[in-house]
Amino acid sequence: MLVREDLNVPMADGRVTDDTRLRATMATVTELADRGAIVLVLAHFGRPKGQPNSEMSLALVTKSYEAVLGRPVRYIDWEGAADAVATLQSGDIAVLENTRFFGGEEKNDPAVIDRFAALGDLYVNDAFSAAHRAHASTEGLAHRLPAFAGRAMQVELDALEKALGNPEHPVAAVVGGAKVSSKLDVLRHLVTKVDHLIIGGGMANTFLAARGVAVGKSLCEHDLTDTAEAILDAADKAGCTVHLPYDVVVAKEFRANPPVRIVNVHEVAADEMILDVGPSAVEALGDVLKNCRTLVWNGPMGAFETPPFDTATVALAKTAAALTQDGSLVSVAGGGDTVAALNQAGVADRFTFVSTAGGAFLEWMEGKDLPGVAALMR
């Protein structure tokens, strides 16, 4: 049985530094093995550009994967793969070499699909994080073999359905990050789906500028103020309330723990930059969440990597987590920076669901069909 997983883990000095993605595969892989399947794990690792690269071999991950699963895992190179697979017994688990060592993997090449398909009789896609790519191992195989969603994929899709597919209203969305340009499609889609759109991070500055606010030296895409205004107009027409900060934390330089001021957005000096949402706005946003039933979150409220500009993100995340624990809020979050911010706030395990997917989560927030998911729905 071919099982597409996400083993694309960070490494340093030959060691896995974060095994979150490995642990996410456990439910599917161990259940199948316990039921007697021969489990052949397909995965990519890095960007080898269609060529074998020893630094991106999944052989480097196999020992860590064994430790996570608590059972033997065999590594199988593509050379002689069919013969090696033939020696496996019921309940065995093996990791096949990096799928991206084939140039045709990312091109969804029928010849590569055939090569993969020849090794198994069933296909399970458990890698939501790669589902936005129409690759041979993520989409093509679903058309060649009987195809199913794995447990991690199932949990992810169920959570996303609760967040935006068929949510309980009122629905709030928190969208932060540095640039509006990276999330234009997300914002355009969300204003048609949610009741409250909370905009933070550097992108909030562009919206403030669109409203005529002087944002000093703040990160701001002034060339997109007309676009921001159009999004605000679309929100008004859709009945979506957009929340922008009205007090902010400013500094004259961007570094850890500089002198700061908390000011009204109309009082930002020409030599200052906005680096976080202010406490009054955070308190008001917390009240918004208290009146909502569903929350979807992507992106931090400020420059959270640099203290003290993580304050707003941490405070709002803790409010969301408390409401979730009280049972009054369904909270779904995703994206790399978001996961890091929620971990920093110490609340990631108190949200309803936190997705480790990056691009796939964003494309889902944009309302796009994900090829790897669509292929399973046929």
From TrEMBL:
It is an enzyme of class 2 (transferase). Gene3D superfamilies: Phosphoglycerate kinase, N-terminal domain. The gene is pgk. It is found in: Cytoplasm. ATP binds at K183, E305, G335, G336, D337, T338. Pathway: Carbohydrate degradation; glycolysis; pyruvate from D-glyceraldehyde 3-phosphate: step 2/5. Its EC number is 2.7.2.3. Keywords: ATP-binding, Cytoplasm, Glycolysis, Kinase, Nucleotide-binding, Transferase. This is Phosphoglycerate kinase. It comes from the Bacteria. Its main location: cytoplasm. SUPFAM superfamilies: Phosphoglycerate kinase (SSF53748). It comes from Sphingomonas cynarae. Monomer. The keyword Cell wall biogenesis/degradation does not apply. Substrate binds at D6, L7, N8, R21, H44, F45, G46, R47, R100, R133. Pfam families: PGK. Belongs to the phosphoglycerate kinase family. It catalyses: (2R)-3-phosphoglycerate + ATP = (2R)-3-phospho-glyceroyl phosphate + ADP. GO terms for molecular function: kinase activity.
